[in-house]
Backbone:
C-alpha cells in the first residue's frame, strides 16, 4: 500500500527531527539568538519590501496602498543621477576592496614574522584600537585632521606644500575614505588571518628550513597558501557586499561639494527615503541595490568554485 | 503546604492575564464606537450646517472644561529645553496648574529624541493606534487631507464653529490666518500654532561684529557694494588685532539655512533650497533661483568673494559647532544667525576677560538692491506651520477643542508662557507679566530652561508665540534690534509658506525636486568655489529644465495663483 509507506516515512522523518533536536538541544539553543535576529530583522521586513511596487501612504498601510508595478524603478533608471550613483558606489566600494582588503593580510603576515612578543602585542593593540571608536567620533577625528588648519595640512605646510581642503575636493574624497577605512579596520581584520596562520602545521616550516628555504620563501610557499582558503572566502563575502556600502560614514564625511564622487546609492536612499519621506521610491532603489548584490555574490562564488575549488555553497 | 501555595500563585497569575486581556478588548471596542460617534458627529454637524441658518458663533465656556477630571493622551515632542530638568511635560508646573483649573488631564507620549519627529509620527500612524491628540502633525509624511480622508484625524471646521470660541475670534480678526490654515480640500486638520504679533515673526538676520566696524571706522553695510567694502576691510585690515590676516569675513556652515546661500537675498532673490524650493515671486511669477535674472550677478559676486577670501573657504564642510567657534575665537566677522541661538548665545558665551572685551554683535538688515527695495524671504507667517490634531480615537472632542482653544484666549496665552499668577509670575504696574524668582533664580538652569520646566513658554503644546514671553527671554538689546533691522524689508517677492497642493501634485513636486535639489546645491557650490566656470550657467539651466524643473514650477505657479485669488 503506497499510502502506508508515505505515512511511515513521514513518521520516521518527524522522529529523526525530534531526535536530532533532543540530541543537539544545546547547539540549537546556541543557534537561537542568531536565528531569531535574522528572522526578525532580515526576513520579516522583506514583507514590507513590496512598498517598492506600491504608492505607499502611511495612512493607507502596506496592503491598502495602490499597486503601481515598476513605476518607481523606472523613475530611478531614468533619474539624472542613476549613472553617477552606480559608478560612485562601485568605484568607492571596489577601490576600498582593492586597497583595504590586502592591508590586514599584509599586516598579519608581517606580525607573524615578528619574534619580539612585546612589540607584537603593542602593535596589535594599537592597530585594533580604532575599530572600537564609535564611527561618529572616528569621523570627527578625520574631519579635525583634514581641516584647513588641521594636523595633516600643518604637516603639508611645514614641508612647504599648499594647504588642501580635503573634504571639499571631490578628487580627495575617495582617498580620505579609503585610507581612513584602512586605519579603522586593519588591526581588527588581521585577527582572522593571524588565527588562520596559527593553524598551519609547524612541520611544514621545519621541512622547509631543512630544504634551505629562507623567511621570504617560507611566507610565499607555506603561509600564504595555508591561509588562501580563508582569503578567498572573505573575498567572496566582501564582494557580495560591494553595493551595500554603509551610508553612515559617507554621510558623516560628505557635503554638497563632494557629491560628485561621494554620493552613493545608500546616501541617496537616505536623503530621498528618510529625509524627503519618499518611501516607495527609496525602497525601489534599495531593492535594486540588493538584487545587484545578490547577483555579484553568485557570480564571484561561481568563478571561485571553478578556478579555486573553494566556495560558499 | 508549599504545593498549594504554588498552585495559588499560578492561579492568580492566570487571573491577572485574563483580566488584562479583557480590559484590552474593552478599550479597543470603546475606541471603535467612539470613532463611529465621532464620524456621526461630523456628519450630523455638516448636515446641520447645510440646513440651519448661519450659526450664531461658537458657544462660550468657562473653566473648568469638565467637572470630572478626564484624561486625554497627547503625542508631543519633549522640547530639549525642558528635557534637561523634567522627563515628561506632566511634571511641568503650568501643565499641572492648567489641569487643576480645566479638569483635563493630559497624558503625554513623548517620542524618543533619537528618532526624528516625522518618523515617530509615521510609526504611530501606521500602527493604527493613535493618541487622542497628535502634536507636530504637519511633520507626518502624509498631508492633512490624506489623514482626514483615511480617518486618522478629524476635520475640525465644524467643531471649531461649534466650540472654538477664542480661535474663531482670532480667525475673524486675522482672515489671512484662516486661509493659511485651510488645506487644499478646504479642511482644517489641526488646531494651529501661530505668531499673532508681527514682531514674533522675525527672529533671524545677518549679524556683524559691530566692534570691528567701529575699530575700522565703518558703517553697517546697506548695499552689496558696501558689503564688499566691509568684508574686504575685515579681510585685510586685521580688525582682531593679532597681526595676522586670519579673519574669515563671512562665516557660514554646511547647513544651507545658515550659509552662503542666504546672501542671495542681498540681490533680491531667494537662493535657499529649504525655503520654498529656492523660489521667489518675480513679476507675479514663481521663479526658480537659477532662472532669476539676479542669479548670474549673485554667483559671479560670490565666486569673486570666495576667491578673495571674503567667504570662509571651508563653509561647505563646517558644522554648527565649529562655526560658532570661529565667531567666538575672533575669526568670523559676519554671519547669518538666529536672534536667540545666534546673537544671544554667542554674546552670552564669549570669553570677554581673556579675549576682546569690546566684543559686540549687531544685526544688519537685508541690503538695498538696485531698485531701491530690500527683500525679505525668511520671516514667518501668522500660521506657524504647526499645531495639534484630534485623532479619530478621541472620545472627548468638545473638551479637547476647548482645552486647546483656551490657550488662544488672552488669559490662556499668559498662562501658557508665564504659568500661575503669584507663583511663577507677577504683573508689574503696567500690567506686564514678569517671571518670579522661582524661575529667574532656578538652580543650574538657564532662563529658557527654567521657563520650560515651569511653564509652556516657547515650547509645545502652547498655541501662540506670545509677545511677552518673546520679550522676557531676550537678555541683550542687540536681540531686540533684529526686528527693526529686518522688518523694513518687503516680503512681496517671498513665496507664501502656505501654498497648498493636492495630494498628487505634492507627490509629483517632491519627486521632481529631489534630484533638482542635489543638482542645484552641488553646482551652486562648484560655481562659488570656482571649480565650475560661470560660463556654464546656460548649461546649468538647461540641465535643470531637463530634470523637470518647468513642470515643478508650473505646479507651484498654479498653487500660487489660487492663493492670490483666495486672498484677494
Residues:
Amino acid at each position: 500500500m503506497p499510502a502506508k509507506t508515505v505515512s511511515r516515512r513521514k513518521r520516521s522523518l518527524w522522529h529523526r527531527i525530534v531526535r536530532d533536536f533532543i540530541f543537539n538541544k544545546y547547539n540549537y539553543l546556541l543557534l537561537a539568538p542568531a536565528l531569531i535576529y535574522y528572522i526578525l530583522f532580515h526576513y520579516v521586513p522583506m514583507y514590507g519590501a513590496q512598498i517598492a511596487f506600491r504608492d505607499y501612504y502611511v495612512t493607507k498601510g502596506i496592503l491598502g496602498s495602490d499597486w503601481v508595478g515598476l513605476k518607481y524603478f523606472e523613475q530611478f533608471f531614468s533619474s539624472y543621477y542613476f549613472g553617477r550613483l552606480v559608478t560612485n558606489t562601485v568605484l568607492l566600494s571596489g577601490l576600498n576592496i582593492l586597497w583595504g582588503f590586502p592591508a590586514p593580510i599584509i599586516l598579519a603576515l608581517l606580525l607573524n614574522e615578528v619574534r619580539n612578543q612585546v612589540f607584537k602585542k603593542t602593535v596589535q593593540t594599537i592597530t585594533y584600537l580604532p575599530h572600537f571608536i564609535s564611527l561618529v567620533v572616528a569621523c570627527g577625528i578625520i574631519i579635525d585632521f583634514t581641516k584647513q588648519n588641521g594636523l595633516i595640512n600643518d604637516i603639508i605646510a611645514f614641508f612647504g606644500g599648499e594647504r588642501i581642503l580635503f573634504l571639499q575636493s571631490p578628487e580627495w574624497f575617495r582617498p580620505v575614505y579609503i585610507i581612513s577605512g584602512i586605519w579603522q579596520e586593519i588591526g581588527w581584520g588581521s585577527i582572522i588571518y593571524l588565527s588562520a596562520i596559527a593553524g598551519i602545521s609547524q612541520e611544514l616550516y621545519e621541512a622547509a628550513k631543512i630544504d634551505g628555504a629562507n623567511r621570504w620563501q617560507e611566507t610565499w610557499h607555506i603561509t600564504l597558501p595555508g591561509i588562501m582558503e580563508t582569503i578567498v572566502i572573505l573575498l567572496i563575502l566582501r564582494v557580495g557586499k560591494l553595493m551595500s556600502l554603509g551610508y553612515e560614514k559617507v554621510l558623516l564625511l560628505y557635503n554638497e561639494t563632494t557629491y560628485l564622487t561621494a554620493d552613493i546609492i545608500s546616501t541617496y536612499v537616505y536623503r530621498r527615503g528618510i529625509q524627503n519621506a519618499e518611501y516607495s521610491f527609496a525602497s525601489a532603489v534599495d531593492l535594486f541595490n540588493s538584487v545587484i548584490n545578490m547577483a555579484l555574490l553568485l557570480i564571484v562564488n561561481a568563478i571561485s568554485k571553478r578556478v579555486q575549488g573553494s566556495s560558499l555553497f | 503546604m508549599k504545593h498549594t501555595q504554588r498552585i495559588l500563585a499560578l492561579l492568580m497569575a492566570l487571573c491577572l492575564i485574563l483580566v488584562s486581556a479583557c480590559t484590552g478588548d474593552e478599550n479597543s471596542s470603546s475606541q471603535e464606537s467612539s470613532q463611529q460617534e465621532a464620524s456621526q458627529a461630523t456628519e450630523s454637524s455638516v448636515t446641520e450646517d447645510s440646513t440651519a441658518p448661519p450659526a450664531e458663533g461658537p458657544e462660550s465656556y468657562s473653566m473648568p472644561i469638565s467637572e470630572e477630571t478626564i484624561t486625554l493622551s497627547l503625542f508631543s515632542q519633549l522640547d530639549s529645553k525642558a528635557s534637561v530638568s523634567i522627563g515628561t511635560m506632566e511634571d511641568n508646573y503650568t501643565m499641572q496648574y492648567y489641569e487643576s483649573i480645566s479638569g483635563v488631564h493630559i497624558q503625554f507620549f513623548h517620542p524618543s529624541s533619537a528618532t526624528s519627529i516625522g518618523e515617530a509620527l509615521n510609526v504611530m500612524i501606521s500602527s493604527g493606534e493613535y493618541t487622542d491628540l497628535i502634536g507636530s502633525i504637519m511633520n507626518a509624511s502624509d498631508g492633512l487631507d490624506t489623514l482626514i480622508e483615511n480617518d486618522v484625524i478629524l476635520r475640525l471646521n465644524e467643531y471649531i464653529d461649534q466650540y472654538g470660541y477664542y480661535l474663531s475670534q482670532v480667525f475673524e480678526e486675522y482672515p489671512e490666518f484662516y486661509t493659511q490654515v485651510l488645506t487644499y480640500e478646504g479642511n482644517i486638520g489641526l488646531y494651529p500654532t501661530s505668531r499673532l504679533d508681527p514682531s514674533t515673526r522675525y527672529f533671524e538676520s545677518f549679524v556683524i561684529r559691530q566692534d570691528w566696524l567701529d575699530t575700522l571706522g565703518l558703517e553697517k553695510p546697506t548695499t552689496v557694494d558696501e558689503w564688499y567694502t566691509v568684508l574686504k576691510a575685515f579681510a585685510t585690515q586685521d580688525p582682531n588685532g593679532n597681526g595676522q590676516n586670519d579673519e574669515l569675513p563671512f562665516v557660514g556652515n554646511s547647513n544651507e539655512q545658515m550659509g552662503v546661500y542666504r546672501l542671495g537675498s542681498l540681490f533680491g532673490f531667494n537662493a535657499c533650497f529649504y525655503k520654498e524650493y529656492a523660489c521667489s515671486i518675480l513679476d507675479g511669477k514663481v521663479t526658480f533661483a537659477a532662472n532669476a535674472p539676479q542669479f548670474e550677478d549673485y554667483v559671479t559676486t560670490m565666486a569673486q568673494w570666495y576667491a578673495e577670501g571674503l567667504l570662509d573657504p571651508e563653509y561647505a564642510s563646517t558644522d554648527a559647532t565649529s562655526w560658532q567657534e570661529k565667531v567666538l575665537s575672533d575669526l568670523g566677522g559676519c554671519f547669518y544667525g538666529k536672534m536667540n541661538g545666534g546673537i544671544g548665545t554667542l554674546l552670552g558665551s564669549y570669553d570677554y576677560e581673556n579675549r576682546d572685551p569690546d566684543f559686540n554683535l549687531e544685526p544688519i538688515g537685508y541690503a538695498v538692491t538696485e531698485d531701491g527695495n530690500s527683500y525679505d524671504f525668511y520671516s514667518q507667517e501668522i500660521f506657524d506651520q504647526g499645531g495639534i490634531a484630534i485623532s479619530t480615537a478621541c472620545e472627548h472632542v468638545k473638551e479637547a477643542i476647548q482645552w486647546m482653544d483656551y490657550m488662544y484666549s488672552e488669559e490662556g496665552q499668559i498662562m501658557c508662557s508665564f504659568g500661575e499668577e503669584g507663583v511663577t509670575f507677577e504683573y508689574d504696574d503696567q500690567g506686564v507679566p514678569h517671571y518670579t524668582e522661582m524661575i529667574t533664580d532656578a538652580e543650574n538652569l538657564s532662563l529658557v530652561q527654567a521657563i520650560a520646566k515651569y511653564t509652556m513658554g516657547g515650547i509645545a503644546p502652547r498655541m501662540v508665540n506670545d509677545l511677552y514671553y518673546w520679550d522676557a527671554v531676550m537678555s541683550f538689546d542687540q536681540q531686540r534690534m533684529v526686528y527693526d533691522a529686518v522688518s523694513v524689508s518687503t516680503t512681496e517677492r517671498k513665496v507664501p509658506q502656505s501654498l497648498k497642493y493636492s495630494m498628487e501634485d505634492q507627490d509629483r513636486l517632491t519627486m521632481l525636486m529631489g534630484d533638482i535639489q542635489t543638482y542645484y546645491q552641488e553646482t551652486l557650490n562648484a560655481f562659488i568655489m570656482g571649480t565650475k566656470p560661470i560660463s556654464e550657467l546656460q548649461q546649468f539651466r538647461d540641465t535643470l529644465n531637463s530634470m523637470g524643473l518647468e513642470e515643478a514650477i508650473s505646479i507651484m505657479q498654479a498653487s500660487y495663483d489660487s492663493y492670490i485669488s483666495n486672498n484677494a
User: Anything to note?
Assistant: The longest strand of chain B covers residues 383-390. The mean pLDDT of chain B is 86.
